Structure formats: structure tokens, C-alpha cells
Write a sequence for this structure.
């Protein structure tokens, strides 16, 4: 055979086998029945192909020669070709390796290939694989069923030929490793290229362990990353040995466990979250398994006082957690998982025995594949108590709302629409609930000022509420009344509302106006009284100082006026006083003031003089003479021809003082000088008249000695109760047991005592004497704790910082009931510092001490302050009692005082009751308690003791 017939390609030398004859080799090569090809062992270029190979592939011979055998499209799986060639390189020859030959038209032919090395060349002989016998069909069916099973289970299989490193795998296995089945080259090392590096090392170690016989069967979990996505795979591997006992192949399965792994991680994370939530939950939680506690959280331990050690492994009933036997069945059923609890309410016992009302829930859960029951508790003890208190409060509010005598309405804040009104509203306004609800007060025409509501809301926003605002409203029938209004914000079911309370104060204001007028004016003449005179004088002084003016105070006393009362009667006397008033008013200017101080005493306050010295005295005297002459002129009173004379004392302003007290005192001194001269005249105050001041100093010195030597004592005047016809109390009256002048009444020294600080120590002595006397009478069984002894308190004594402690100290020292002591204060004390007065009175009243307002009606009689004070009793001054049966003005004042006491639910006692006529009148007006000569003059302690031992029969009716 010549050179050209030798198999080869351009640039490729023909084979030169040393063991075979070339001609013989070619004859054999070309005569092979099966496809065969000869390739270069180094370059894998095709040197020659036999006719059977050409017939099988349908390629022309020249198309194949010189082509790289692995890269030319001859093989169904190029990667498998390369893997096979690598195995051949290691082993030298291969036998019966499965391979698929790719025809030119794309068809696949299945062959078994054997490779023989001939020097530097490789001979590949292909033999067809049989496929038509019954066993092949059975195998094919078996493989089909296996494939369907694997596909159904999303499972792949693989088969690794250890000797050749060839790896046969299913399409699913290739897909799980990131390969398309058509691209898989059959190389085991390539199969692992997408495996995470760390896991790849673990796989190799595992396979080495299997091959060394340590693990005949192995299960391995690892990760692959394909297209930047990680998935978890689980592989099984089983080792097969050859006849020599050497590892030959490894077969296994492959499954994607990414979802399973993710679920496991989620489960672990969920259980971790559950543990965190369980322990840190604000509500108590308890975990039960097989009816025994296996875990409690921190809130459970705090709430019930049990530690986890106390509870774990025990049943709840063993611990005593369940306080109620009636609840055992439901709780045990829940602990066994037979039922779930929702909103179950029961009482549970803490470790120290306290009972808690709890809302209980239970849920069946699985933890670590164990069926458990999770109990949750919510302590609703405080909430239940609060709800109960709220219901009680709402019930009280509803009853108060409906039953209140005041008008109460609830309106929507934004629109003013009435939402609810009570009976008091209907009584006050005349509108029925049906007429009022759903409409505004402006629509009803109740508020005279339509802008009043906006102003109320504005004030309510600024100050949180409106209290006691006075305003006028119009009723359904057109009547205008004065009301006291209070408003507060209120929220009802999330709706902003206004709660409005109104009280008709028309009559109250009328009474207050009457009392206030009486407080500043004389009831008979309607002239200013001493209080208003003092106010006018203060204003006058300010005016005089600004304009350098002068004035004068004229103090009048009608001479022998008592004779008129005694001979002609009080009505005639009153008429005389009214006529004197008229004449004085006719003679003075509008800027001057005429006042009546009481009885037959008048004061005229002249102002606006520009002169000084003697000239001023002449002007004032001329004016005084005119007034004197006016009063002296004859008058006809009730058919009687009368002619009066008067005495006038004059104090110049500011020469003789600028306060009402000083001017009245000095004008009074001058008045008495006139009386000393025979009355019916005029006298100016002179400094020589100040001798009285020296006498005052002497009295003060003697009073100091009296205090230090205990010369003050108490006398007592009984207080009679008409209902019981018994003496139910007494007033303590101060007396001075003078070593030389005998028993001296308070009129001679009380002013000096009050004006100095001596009243403080004297007041303490009086308190202790009174308390000691109460203790003595109680000890003798002469009185009960209902007996009340009153003690007069001076303004300076009341204002002192130690007053409250002094009173309580005396009570405690003598161990008497506080109910037996009553403190009498004047209206002047009350108004001087109303806040301090209220604080002190409230403090003493909280200890049971009683209070009475003395001489009520002579000062600042007002409901406004009386409503704020813890007062028990009003005392009607004897100046009103004296002429009450005959003097309509006094009678009217008494009726007003009784009306005030009745409206404020205060006790009442009349002073200075001397006649049966006075008693009858007062009792008819509603007064039940009396004090005066009719029932007993002031007496010492021993006489009152005797009177209580042997009560007289007063027989009053």
C-alpha cells in the first residue's frame, strides 16, 4: 500500500506501529464491521476512519480526517467524551464505555466504545448496544417507572464510575447542580463546580471516608450557588466494590431541601421569637405539658409571687394557684387540651394569699413536636374595681343629675345642641325635655346675651371651668331671672360636651341686697350707718389731701329723746327721728354726708372747706348753728307739737384726726362737754380733752397687773332653748375683779385690752377658764356633751398665729369634748382676712369646735361670706331685739336674719331678750333659742352651777 493510501491528514505522520504490519493493520481496520477511528494520542486529531464509521455518521472521509475528535460534532455528549479520554489517559485503555454517536442528520446511535493505545495513537472501536430483546424492554420500563417516581419526588440520581471519574446523572440531578442535561459532560469534578467551596471539601472528605470503608452508606447536606441563588441539597451515597473488593462505583440520590431547610430555620427563628416574647410579655404566661407546668414567664412570677423553681414540674392545683374549686373543671380541661379558654374570668391566689381576678385564655400549641397548652393571664382586679367604681360614680352622677334641685344640662360643645336636661332645668326654664333636647339655648331664647356661651367656652378653655358666674336668662314664659352658672368640660362617648349648672339666685340676691343695704344703712332713716360713714370719711380724706381741703365731723345727740319714747311711744319716737333726718338732709349739700349711728345719735360730715384756723372754725360753727336751728324748729308728730334741742360735738379734719374712729371719739368727747354745760349747744374738740388718753395708759398698766395676778374671771349668762324648755348653753362674759373697785364690766376696759397686745394673754386665760369650767360641770354630771359654752374671741386674738394651737391646747389640757365649746366671732373678724378666717375655722371645725357669728346684722351681713364659713349659729344683736315688737325696721331686720339662717341651715339665738313680748315675737318669726335677762342675768360659776342643779320652771309660752 503506497503512502497516499495510509490513513492520515496533512501535517500528520502515518502511524508506525512496531508490533503490527502496517498493511495488515489497515486491512483489519477497514474490514471491521463496526465503526472505528484512529486518533493521535497527543492532539486527538482524527488520523483515519473505517467505512463502517463513515456509514454510521453519514460524513465523507475527507470531512473527518484532521479534525479534533472531541470538538467535531460526533458525540451526543461532548463532555462525556472528554471525561472518557481523561480516564483513558490515566488507565491506558478502556473497555465497553457507553457513548452516543451523533449522525450528520442529528440522529443518535448508542454504542459501546473500547480504546486501545498503539504507540502514539489510539484506536477506538465502537460496538452497537442491543435494544430489542425482552430484557431491554423490561429494563426500559423499569427505568421509565423509576424516572417517573424520581420526577414525582423531585429527586435526582447519580452514578459515579470511580476508576474513570465518569459521572452519569439524571436530568434532575444536573438541574439541581446548575446544568442543563444536554450540556452535562459526565465529569465528576465538573459536577461539583457550583458547590460552595467549604461544602465541596466536606463532600470530598465524605467520599474518601466511604471509599475507605468507614461509612458504606452516607447522607450529606451541602449548598450550591446557581445564578447567585443558593439552594440546599441532600445527597445519599452507596459504595459498590468490584470483584477484587476495590471501590468501583458510587450510586446515590439527590433532592432539593431548600424549602425544608428554610422552614427549619424559620421554625428555629419562630421558636426563638416565641421564647423572647414569652419571657418579656407584659401579661403572665404559663406553659403546661401533660397537666404540669414546664415554663412560666417573668410577669407570671411577678404577678403571682412564684418563681419558676416553685412551679416547674408541678400541677397548678398542687401549688394552690386556683383559689376557686368551681373553676377547677374548666381549667383542668384546658390543661389537658380538651378545650380552649377565651375571656374566662376567675379568681387566683398569689403566693402570699392575695386574691387576683384574672381573665384567662388558653391555646393548644406544639413545641419541639410536643403538644402543650399555653395559658395567658391578665390581672383585671384593678380594672374591675375601677369599672365598679365608675359604675357607682356614673350611678351617683345619674342620681345627682336627675335629683339635683339645680338646673343641669349637657350640650354638645361644638354646636351647642342640648343632649340631656334634668328636672331642675325644666323647673328653671319652663321647657320640657322634649322641647329642649336637640335644640340650642339660643334657639330656645334662654340666654339674653347670645354671645354668653362663646364667652363661657373661652373662659372654660383658659381656666378649666367656670364657677359661679352671674348672668340673666329668660324663661319660656318671658320672665327674666338672675342665675349663678358653672360650666365644666365633659367628654361623652368621644364627643366634647359642656356640663352647665345653673341656680336661680334672684331671691338670694334680693335678700343679700337687703342685708347689704341694712349693713351700710340705718333701717329706720335709710341714712348711712357707722360703717358707711367710715368709708365716706376715707374717700373724703383722700380728696382733701389731693386738693388741700378741710372738713368737719359733727356728732349730734338729741337731748332727752328717751322721754319722747317713754311718753309717746316708739312709733312717735321713730317719726321724730325720720323728721330730724329730713331736716338735716335739707340743710346739707349733696357732697356732705348725714349718718345715723343708732338711737338718737347722728353724724354730719361736712367737706370742701378751703379756710384754716379760726376762719375754718367760724365756717363750721355757722353750719352747725344752722343745723341746730333746723332741728330746734317746732314739729308736728302724730298730733303732738314737739320741739327738740340737740347737742353737737365737732372735730375738725384733719386737725383732730383723719380716721373715723379718732374723729368720732374726739367729736364724742366734745359732745359730752356740751352735755356737761347743759346741752343744746356746740363744742369743738380741744387738746385739753386728751386727759382721757392718760387715763387709758393708767388702765393699761392696771390691766397688765390684772393678767399677771389672775384678776380676770368669767360670769355666765344662760341660753334657753324654747323647744326643750331648758338651759342648753351659756355665754361666758369677761369680768375684772379689781382689788379696790370691785367687779368691773368689760365696757370699762375691753377697748384698752383689745387695742393693746394684752388681749392675747387675757384671751388664753379666758379659754382655759372656760374649758376648766366645762370639765367641772361634766364631771359633776350637770351637763351633757350637747351643752355648749360660748367664748367671745377678739379680732386680735383670732388673727394671732398661735390661735388654733391655743384653742386645741386648752381643749386637750382639760380633756373636754370639742362639741361643748363654741367660739363667738364678729363679722369684722370674718371680712378682715376672709381666706385666713376660713382656713382657721375649717381647721378648728375639723376637730369639732363650733362657731357663732356675734351681733349679726350690725356689720357686713352677707350670704356670700356666710356660705364659705363653717358657722353653726347666728346671734341676733340685742339692738334689734330691744324694739322688735314695735319697730317695723328692727322686725324686718330680724326676719331677714332668720331667713338667711334658715336658707343656710344655721342655728339662731337672740340676745337681750328681756320681756315676754320680745320672746313671743321672736318665736313667732322662727327663733328657738334665747339669751337675756328674761332667763337670767350674767352670774358667776357657782350660781350657774346651782341653776343647773335646780333648773327653774321658766313657764314661757
Amino acid at each position: 500500500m503506497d503512502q497516499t493510501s495510509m490513513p492520515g491528514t496533512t501535517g500528520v505522520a502515518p502511524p508506525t506501529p512496531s508490533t503490527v504490519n502496517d498493511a495488515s493493520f489497515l486491512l483489519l481496520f477497514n474490514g471491521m464491521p463496526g465503526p472505528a477511528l484512529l486518533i493521535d494520542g497527543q492532539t486527538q486529531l482524527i488520523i483515519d476512519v473505517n467505512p463502517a464509521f463513515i456509514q454510521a455518521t453519514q460524513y465523507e472521509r475527507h470531512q473527518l480526517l484532521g479534525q479534533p475528535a472531541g470538538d467535531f460534532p460526533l458525540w451526543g455528549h461532548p463532555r462525556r467524551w472528554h471525561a472518557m479520554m481523561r480516564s483513558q489517559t490515566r488507565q491506558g485503555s478502556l473497555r465497553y464505555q457507553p457513548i452516543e454517536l451523533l449522525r450528520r442528520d442529528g440522529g443518535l446511535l448508542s454504542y459501546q466504545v473500547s480504546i486501545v493505545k498503539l504507540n502514539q495513537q489510539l484506536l477506538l472501536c465502537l460496538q452497537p448496544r442491543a435494544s430489542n430483546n425482552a430484557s431491554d424492554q423490561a429494563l426500559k420500563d423499569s427505568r421509565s417507572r423509576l424516572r417517573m417516581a424520581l420526577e414525582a419526588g423531585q429527586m435526582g440520581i447519580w452514578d459515579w464510575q470511580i476508576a474513570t471519574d465518569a459521572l452519569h446523572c439524571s436530568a434532575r440531578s444536573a438541574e439541581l447542580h446548575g446544568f442543563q442535561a444536554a450540556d452535562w459532560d459526565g465529569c465528576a469534578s465538573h459536577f461539583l463546580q457550583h458547590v460552595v467551596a467549604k461544602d465541596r471539601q466536606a463532600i470530598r472528605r465524605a467520599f474518601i471516608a466511604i471509599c475507605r470503608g468507614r461509612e458504606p452508606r452516607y447522607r450529606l447536606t451541602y449548598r450550591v450557588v446557581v445564578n447567585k441563588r443558593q439552594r440546599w441539597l441532600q445527597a445519599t451515597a452507596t459504595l459498590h466494590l468490584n470483584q477484587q473488593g476495590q471501590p468501583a462505583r458510587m450510586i446515590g440520590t439527590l433532592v432539593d431541601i431548600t424549602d425544608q431547610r428554610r422552614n427549619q430555620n424559620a421554625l428555629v427563628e419562630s421558636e426563638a421569637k416565641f421564647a423572647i416574647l414569652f419571657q418579656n410579655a407584659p401579661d403572665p404566661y404559663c406553659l403546661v405539658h401533660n397537666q404540669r407546668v414546664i415554663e412560666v414567664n417573668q410577669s407570671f412570677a411577678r404577678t403571682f409571687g412564684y418563681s419558676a423553681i416553685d412551679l416547674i414540674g408541678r400541677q397548678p392545683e398542687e401549688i394552690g394557684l386556683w383559689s376557686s374549686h368551681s373553676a377547677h373543671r374548666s381549667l383542668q380541661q384546658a390543661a389537658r387540651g380538651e378545650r380552649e379558654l377565651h375571656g374566662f374570668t376567675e379568681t387566683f391566689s398569689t403566693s402570699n394569699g392575695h386574691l387576683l381576678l384574672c381573665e384567662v385564655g388558653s391555646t393548644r400549641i406544639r413545641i419541639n413536636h410536643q403538644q402543650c397548652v399555653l395559658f395567658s393571664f391578665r390581672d383585671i382586679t384593678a380594672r374591675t374595681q375601677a369599672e365598679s367604681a365608675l359604675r357607682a360614680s356614673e350611678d351617683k352622677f345619674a342620681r345627682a343629675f336627675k335629683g339635683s334641685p339645680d338646673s343641669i344640662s349637657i350640650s354638645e360643645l361644638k354646636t351647642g345642641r342640648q343632649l340631656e336636661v334634668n328636672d331642675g332645668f325644666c323647673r328653671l326654664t319652663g321647657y320640657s325635655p322634649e322641647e329642649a333636647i336637640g335644640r340650642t339655648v339660643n334657639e330656645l331664647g334662654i340666654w339674653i346675651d347670645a354671645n354668653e356661651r362663646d364667652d363661657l367656652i373661652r373662659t372654660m378653655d383658659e381656666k378649666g371651668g367656670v364657677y359661679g358666674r352671674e348672668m340673666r336668662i329668660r324663661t319660656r314664659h318671658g320672665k327674666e331671672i338672675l342665675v349663678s352658672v358653672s360650666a365644666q368640660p365633659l367628654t361623652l362617648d368621644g364627643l366634647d360636651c359642656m356640663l352647665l349648672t345653673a341656680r336661680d339666685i334672684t331671691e338670694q340676691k334680693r335678700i343679700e341686697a337687703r342685708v347689704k343695704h341694712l349693713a351700710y344703712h340705718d333701717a329706720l332713716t335709710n341714712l348711712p350707718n357707722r360703717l358707711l360713714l367710715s368709708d365716706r370719711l376715707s374717700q373724703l380724706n383722700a380728696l382733701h389731701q389731693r386738693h388741700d381741703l378741710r372738713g368737719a365731723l359733727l356728732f349730734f345727740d338729741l337731748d332727752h329723746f328717751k322721754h319722747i319714747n317713754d311718753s309717746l311711744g316708739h312709733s312717735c319716737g321713730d317719726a321724730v327721728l325720720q323728721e330730724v333726718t329730713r331736716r338735716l338732709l335739707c340743710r346739707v349739700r349733696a357732697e356732705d354726708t348725714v349718718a345715723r349711728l343708732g338711737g338718737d345719735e347722728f353724724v354730719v360730715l361736712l367737706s370742701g372747706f378751703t379756710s384754716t384756723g379760726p376762719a375754718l372754725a367760724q365756717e363750721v360753727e355757722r353750719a352747725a348753728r344752722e343745723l341746730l336751728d333746723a332741728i330746734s324748729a317746732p314739729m308736728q308728730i302724730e298730733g303732738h307739737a314737739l320741739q327738740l334741742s340737740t347737742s353737737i360735738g365737732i372735730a375738725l379734719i384733719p386737725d383732730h384726726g383723719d380716721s373715723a374712729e379718732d374723729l368720732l371719739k374726739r367729736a364724742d368727747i366734745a359732745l359730752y362737754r356740751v352735755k356737761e354745760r347743759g346741752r343744746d349747744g356746740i363744742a369743738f374738740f380741744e387738746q385739753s380733752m386728751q386727759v382721757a388718753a392718760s387715763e387709758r395708759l393708767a388702765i393699761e398698766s392696771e390691766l397688765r397687773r390684772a393678767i399677771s395676778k389672775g384678776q380676770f374671771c368669767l360670769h355666765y349668762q344662760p341660753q334657753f332653748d324654747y323647744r326643750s324648755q331648758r338651759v342648753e348653753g351659756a355665754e361666758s362674759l369677761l369680768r375684772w375683779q379689781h382689788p379696790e373697785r370691785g367687779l368691773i364690766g368689760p365696757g370699762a376696759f375691753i377697748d384698752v385690752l383689745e387695742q393693746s397686745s394684752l388681749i392675747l394673754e387675757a384671751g388664753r386665760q379666758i379659754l382655759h377658764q372656760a374649758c376648766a369650767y366645762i370639765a367641772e360641770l361634766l364631771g359633776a354630771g350637770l351637763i351633757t356633751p350637747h351643752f355648749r359654752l360660748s367664748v367671745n374671741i377678739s379680732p386680735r386674738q383670732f388673727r394671732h398665729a398661735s390661735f388654733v394651737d391655743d384653742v386645741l391646747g386648752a381643749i386637750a389640757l382639760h380633756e373636754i369634748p370639742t362639741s361643748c365649746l363654741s367660739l363667738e366671732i364678729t363679722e369684722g373678724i370674718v371680712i378682715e382676712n376672709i381666706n385666713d378666717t376660713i382656713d382657721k375655722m375649717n381647721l378648728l371645725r375639723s376637730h369639732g369646735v363650733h362657731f357663732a357669728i356675734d351681733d349679726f346684722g350690725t356689720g357686713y351681713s352677707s350670704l356670700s361670706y356666710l356660705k364659705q364659713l363653717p358657722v353653726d349659729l347666728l346671734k341676733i344683736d340685742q339692738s334689734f331685739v330691744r324694739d322688735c315688737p314695735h319697730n317695723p325696721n328692727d322686725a324686718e331686720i330680724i326676719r331677714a336674719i332668720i331667713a338667711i339662717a334658715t336658707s343656710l341651715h344655721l342655728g339662731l339665738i337672740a340676745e337681750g331678750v328681756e320681756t315676754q313680748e320680745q320672746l313671743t315675737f321672736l318665736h313667732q318669726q322662727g327663733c328657738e333659742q334665747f339669751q337675756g335677762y328674761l332667763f337670767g342675768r350674767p352670774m358667776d360659776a357657782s350660781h350657774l352651777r346651782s341653776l343647773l342643779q335646780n333648773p327653774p320652771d321658766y313657764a314661757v309660752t
Remarks:
- The longest strand covers residues 229-241.
- Confidence is low (pLDDT under 50) at residues 1-21.
- The two ends are 177 Å apart (CA to CA).
- Residues 306 and 664 are 84 Å apart (CA to CA).
